[in-house]
Amino acid sequence: MDIKELYQEIILDHGKNPRNKNKCEGFNKNAKGHNPLCGDKIHVYLKIDKAKNVEDISFEGEGCAISIASASIMTQIIKGKEFNVAKKILEQFLNMLKEGSKLSINSLSDDENMTMMSLSGVKRFPMRVKCATLAWHTFINAAEGQKETVNTEK
Which of 21, 79, 81, 131 could bond 66 through an S-S bridge, CB–CB 3.0 to 4.6 Å? Predict the structure, then answer.
């Protein structure tokens, strides 16, 4: 199996069997996101402790396989990370999709790195980048207490 097939399998698995797709208990931050062109709708729930660690993260919503897979991957990667580390992961993820840059985050395991990289092929399809980044932008809005719904067309 080549790397492209492995990446496709990871995306399909997360799209069909999303992780953390529920409303986490005791959440203290949340935000909604919408991609009107594809119809994706995401609601991210966070539980951030006093030390600014992402104690728990989950999502609810509906959308295309890329959107759901990306939200699932995000929750797995971000859960348990300190907020500033999570923010760096977000920035590198966005750079990977927009500029094709490699991930260079020391705090990611090899499995986490490969799981995030599975979405790297999306950059070849500009309309799908919005699907892949919706949950990530919604996460940052939730963490920063922004109440406005994330809209990929604004």
Answer: 131
